[in-house]
Fold these 2 entries.
Entry 1:
Amino acid sequence: MFDVDVWQEIFSTIKKNKLRTFLTGFSVAWGIFMLMILLGSGNGLQNGVKEEFSSNSINIMWMWTGDTSIPFEGMKEGRTIKFNNGDYSYLKEKGENIENVSSRYYLPGTIIYTYKNEYGSFETSSCHPSLLGMEKVNIVSGRFINDLDLNDFRKVIVIGDNIKKALFKEEDPIGKYVKLNNVPFKVIGLTFDKDRHSERTAYIPVSTAQRIFNGADRVHTFAVTTKMVSTAEEAEAITDKVREGLAARHKFDPKDKKAMGSFNMLAQYIRTMKIFQAIKIFVWIIGIGTLIAGIVGVSNIMLILVKERTREIGIRKALGASPASVITLVLLESVLITTVAGYAGLLLGVGIMEGINYGLEQALATGGGEGIFFRNPTVDFTTAITSMIILVVSGALAGYLPARKAANVKPIEALRDE
Amino acid sequence: MIQIENLHKSYVMGHNSLHVLKGLELGIEEGEFVSIMGSSGSGKSTLLNILGILDDYDKGTYYLGGKLIQGLNETKAAMTRNKMIGFIFQSFNLISFKNAMENVALPLYYQKVSRKRRNQIALEYLDRLGLKDWAHHLPSELSGGQKQRVAIARALISQPQIILADEPTGALDSTTSFEVMEILKEINDQGKTVIIVTHEHDIAAMTKKIIRLKDGVIEEVIKNGELQLFKDRVRTE
């Protein structure tokens, strides 16, 4: 099969029919090129949306309260529902399928941050230590809030990169004291987020926030992580269970979305990824369809080629060519054209997607590209290899019929003088 | 060399069956120079195809070099053709995109002879036929006589036991025809069996034995000594 002579035979026929070989190869190259572009774009879109989700844990769930809108057990609507530290203990100890809980108390009014002569107003997030793994908090120096800080009501603060730049300039803020409305807090950590989700946010222990800013045991929102499940229905079931528990504690209708609001990221995530799975299947169907069109083209051209070369094949057979050697000749030519052309299409497709990726990354690095739902639109190695295997197999398939036709050429008929 | 007994062959065309060879008997010894003649429809092409193992027959026996040729599969038939028979065709049947040397070397390719070796042998054969300078020319750059000489070299290269020539001079002018016949005669003088199919009397007259076919059987065999007689008869016809 890897006989130099066989290849020389094949190359001499290809050289003789350059344009036809090119056109044949083009249809295959186009097919694989489109497949790569489609797959790459699909991946890019999916990665972009995943990136949006990745600012938090995908199994995070938020809950907040409001006024009831449905009468419940003889009580009129319009009652204000408020979470408290008891709810935290309840979720932590009795919450079904709940892994971590962090409560947040909203600091009243505008909080002014002061360090030496610099001051500014920033978002203050009060939380439990467990928030670190739930929301995207990226500690670049120092540490995050821990249980000791929480239990001892320590006045400690973790600040975002923007706050550090505004107040401390080039100074190292760790160990320094920043005043929040004249109450000094010791800076224990610094966060940095290249996507700038939390750069203007500072974190303090929720217990400290409640004590210093007159919160008593009031909690405004909960962030919890739930057990990982694989369907949106299961995720919604977890939400319903948690709502039922809290509704019983505060005496409101579990269906009352106004009394207590909730958002389950996991259910949303699963639904979105389902859409992408469907898109991926769709892309493969279209891609394979395009490829089949290319392969039929190759098969067609090879059939014509065999017909044109009938006399030559007849001569070869008269001189001692076995059917096997004739089949090898046609089949290898078909595989060669599809593989080389397909590889060219593959390279071009992957190249263009890599180029777009490079451009995107440049844009993101320089601060542009904000809000583009498109990340890393490339095709992975396995997919490329799979496509290559599909190509070789399809080349063989495309050559099969023509090769059989060639093998069946009868020398007497082929050599008959017209 | 060739022993044929009671050979029958018919072609089925739709509902009709055409009985072409009807119990043909033929013996050709080693080293003979034979021409087969006959009007169209006499079965001479069919006989040539069967002799060249390009076609199968229905009934009878065909021995080539002491070997029974019957019901061979395509691969076996191809191998036998390659080793035992050298073909020369009316329209040369050279492969257009291969040069003279590569065309001549082709039978050796199917014998798995290395490229270098078979091209070297091909050059020797071309040299013998006076075409060494044309070895690297494509068939389209050669004259008819040169093409047929390339084809003869190709027929000889595998050192077959018989040479089968189908109207070898059909596409050539008379001067070139005689040159080609001269070459075939030389080949015969070197001991090879040469069988040509022709409808030209003067070409047939240059061979040593003429077999005339009519309606699927041998009508008459004219041997060496009677050739002069044959020539005279042709002239008066």
Note: The first helix of chain A runs from residue 4 to 16.
Entry 2:
Amino acid sequence: MKQKCNISVLFAFGIFVIVTIFLFGGTAGAKTVSKGKVVIAIGTNLATMDPHRHSVMYNYYVNWATNDNLVYRDPKTMKIGPHLAESWRLINDTTWEFKLRKGVTFHNGNPFNAECVKFTIDRILDPKTKSALRGAIKTIDHVEIVDDYTVRIITKEPNPVLLHRFTSLGIVDPKHLKEVGDEGLAKKAMGTGPYKFVEWVKGERLVLEANENYWKFTPAVKTIVFRPIPEMATQIAELLSGGVDIIMRVPPDQASVIENSKTARISKVSGLRVVFLQLDASGWAGSTLLQNRKVRQAFNYAINVEGIMKHILGGMALRCPTGVNPMSFGYDGTIKPYPYDPEKAKKLLAEAGYPDGFTIDLSSYSGSIISVKQIVEAISGDLAKIGVKVNYRHFEDAGLFVKSQRAAKLKDTVLSSWGSWGIFDADLYYYPNLREDERFSYVRDPKVNKLLDEAKTTMDVEKRKKLYSELQEYIVENAYMVPMYAQYSLMGVSNRINYEAASDDMLRVFDIIWRE
Amino acid sequence: MHAYFARRLLQSIVVCLGVSIIAFGLMHLGGDPALLLLPVDASKEDVEVMRKSLSLDRPIYEQYWRFLKGAVKGDFGNSLFVEQDSLSLVIERLPATLELTVAGMALALTIAIPLGILSAIKRYSILDNLATMGAVFGQAMPIFWLGIMLIIIFSVHARLLPASGRGGVLRLVLPAITLGVFLAPVIMRLTRSKMLDVLAQDYIRTAYSKGLHDLLILFKHALRNAIIPVVAIIGLQFGRLLGGALVVETVFAWPGVASLTVKAIKNCDYPLVQAAIISFALMIVIVNLLTDILIAALDPRIKYT
């Protein structure tokens, strides 16, 4: 009896399938339809749906899905391409003209046009908005609307990286904002992006749904859910048990658990974040022996960076001989790093007048540097070999660390990292870390200042490249830091989907596709 | 009685005031919210603009006074990171924390009290030894470790229960067990030792010799006396319960008040921290008051004047 029942069910199902194919088969190939649900784990709660009021990476994953930007960074080449802006040109060194895409609408049906661009930029620049992005684009003097689909952006001085900034400005709808106000935008996303806002239960989940009328393509995944899961062990358990499909920032020592599972895999890529040891070359945080160039060079010879990359990070790092990420604009691959040579380091210390070594401070913090404590131990061990004792101070609280460093309270050396906000350009890393009077700079050198300032405002690509080559050579020669490496970023991806990690650490949820 | 409660209420206001001053002072020793709100490469000028717009450039006493004036009216100000009133952010998360703590506590009580009683009656039996061993084990086990072990066993391997998050009874099971195991040992051991104390009393022997039923003696005469210190301890443990809830909320991605508060502290989100801490202080004061009332109800000899 039971057997018979199953057969009849099977039979009915078979007919159903045939009829379905018959009825819908013809149209299925013509247009892709979004389907299914993908869950993404993020490490912290989302703060807001307002793309201008935060500086949290996870929050940008959502912004990029709901609010389009003027330009788009390709996940493979990291090059900037058109998006809401179809094309652009420089009228002169400080005037950019953007031609905007026509026929794009916000999720509420309002049209996208030049007014939206002007409004968005003006909103960010207005101090009352308290926008975290203001500093990034304050070089903009004003925005002129030429016609409905043409805007001119006039900057105070030439700015070669401005285009990069436009990858994350999140274009908003002025009419909508007028209706709902700042508080309304903070609660509910409204943009022209590939995903529409559905629901946000704070601390629990954010639900987005595919925008089937998206101007560029139809996303493969119908529903995207973001779930804040603070604990990495829990994120991994969720990935392995099928509760979530993507987890970001997997620690390298946990990678094998995921690799060995049947449900998920690791996708890894060399990231933009660089790790380096800052040396107080100017005595900014109090007079120090590191003001002596020979001592700084000795540190460069003494620290076995390649050893750290190999033994602590398991090879998941990319050497940066000048500190600049090799993927960034301006990187000069002809400059060689200091080799690991403790004997030479000892000799240099003796020449500098410290044959018996001395004690220095070293500060670090928990957060962005992978295996930070082991790396500090390795550095301390290497320095001990040349007679330098390390007085180590670790900050669990990144906020206190940043505050202390900005107030010049961290003496001698700091193990730092720099993410450059997804912008692959030497300026974003060198300027804040080397320019005199910049917030994290321990360097006071007129030549460095001059080169940095010039490169920052040079629009000619080749000339700019030369300036950075000269600068990198000078930095290495003077050992203004111990350049180390760029970290890999690892993400865990469920075997249900296809998605690859991108070097800029962004998650492009609209690029997720189903595995057939 | 009324005078007593009026006094307690007055005390609780002083407690909240003290807590808020300490929290305010400590928060200002930590990081700077303007720096955390801005990207790390923000210039000095950007930071100044942000500090000004958040009124952080005013002297501390002035900031505190401004906060206090609002707080009296129940207005703690908007969170610095979210365009929303701080108190409403806390209240939004309260049901999740209550759900978790009530479930954890209920589980702890249903395990610990019967086990404590049984261990006392069958002193030094196998059951007693096992229960005591279990209690020591439970107390020694770090709560986050237990949580992760439960996830690995029941979610990753057995695939019986979801690993984290909130919504539905299934998602509550593992966090409630974790919190329950964290709370049960103290209650169980106290119940056992108090029961042993009471069972050795003369009036219990008298009750037995009168020929009263064993169960009647156990529950009416022994337990009612033994339970009073247990109730007192449960009240005092309320703070520990919130601490445990924090760990459980983090491990299980449970969207409660405790994890919200810790995040707010890390962000130096002053208004939100204040709203959360005052709420906690109030809750602890109220729970202690309720405990006092309950004890008086259990033991008519206790009178508050």
Note: The longest strand of chain A covers residues 264-279.
